[in-house]
Design goal:
The complex is a heterodimer of chains A (108) and B (112).
Chain A: E1 4-6, E2 11-14, E3 19-25, E4 33-38, E5 45-49, E6 55-57, E7 60-65, E8 70-75, E9 84-92, E10 95-98, E11 102-107
Parallel strand pairs in A: 2-11
Antiparallel strand pairs in A: 1-3, 3-8, 4-5, 4-9, 6-7, 7-8, 9-10, 9-11
Chain B: E1 4-7, E2 10-13, E3 19-25, E4 31-37, E5 43-50, E6 65-69, E7 75-79, E8 88-94, E9 102-103, E10 107-111
Parallel strand pairs in B: 2-10
Antiparallel strand pairs in B: 1-3, 3-7, 4-5, 4-8, 6-7, 8-9, 8-10
């Protein structure tokens, strides 16, 4: 089983749509969780941390379920500029382990 | 990205040659990581430096790969006898923590 698994997509949605990405992780000892965004041929950039209580940043909501080892990202009112690859990230001791990412394409 | 500079930005080398990639933190960070990203693949952890502690080399794919960090600042990743499967983007990152990493813009290595 891979350490971090994501549905690769692509997710093709119209502007204004709500879209949800899911991620599972295998290491129950993981303590830190993040979503990163990566644009084509660019380096990954932190989108948001994920906390057990769930957290929201504008149109983005992240949830963590430790019992199920499951992380989610919800994007509301999708914008064209949200088109990117979204990476689920979990720590393994000192390193951050990245999923392969879910590709989102928002069209007008 | 801001805070870390990588060079060169692009490198084309012949199979069998050695290459050296550089990561230069702009400000002082004790923790430094190397990752690589092959075409269509996720980021693969390579090596981690933390202060004066022994580096975590558990991600290095073979003994052709080595890295060092001098004076707790600049780091170099060396690949000896490059192979075509070494072609990837090599990314340097600083400081994991509650706010995650800051990545450099990477070195795109192509082995021909």
């Amino acid at each position: 089983r891979k350490e971090v698994e994501q549905d690769p997509g692509p997710f093709n949605v119209p502007e204004g749509a709500t879209v949800a990405f899911n991620c599972t992780y295998s290491n129950s000892a993981s303590q830190s969780f993040f979503w990163y965004r990566q644009d084509c041929r660019k380096e990954p950039k932190l989108l948001m941390s994920v906390y057990s209580s769930g957290n929201e940043d504008g149109r983005f909501t992240a949830q963590l379920n430790r019992a199920s080892q499951y992380i989610s990202l919800l994007i509301r009112d999708s914008k064209l500029s949200d088109s990117a690859t979204y990476l689920c990230v979990v720590n393994r001791r000192t390193a951050l382990i990245f999923g392969k990412g879910t590709t989102l394409s928002v069209s007008s | 990205g801001a805070g870390v500079s990588q060079s060169p930005s692009n490198k084309v080398t012949e199979k069998g040659k050695d290459v050296e990639l550089r990561c230069d933190p702009i400000s002082g960070h004790t923790a430094l990581y190397w990752y690589r990203q092959s075409l269509g693949q996720g980021l693969e952890f390579l090596i981690y430096f933390q202060g004066n502690s022994a580096p975590d080399k558990s991600g290095l794919p073979s003994d052709r790969f080595s890295a060092e960090r001098t004076g707790g600042s600049v780091s170099t990743l060396t690949i000896q006898r490059t192979q075509q499967e070494d072609s990837a983007v090599y990314l340097c990152a600083l400081d994991p923590g509650d706010y995650g990493y800051t990545f450099g813009s990477g070195t795109r290595l192509t082995v021909v």
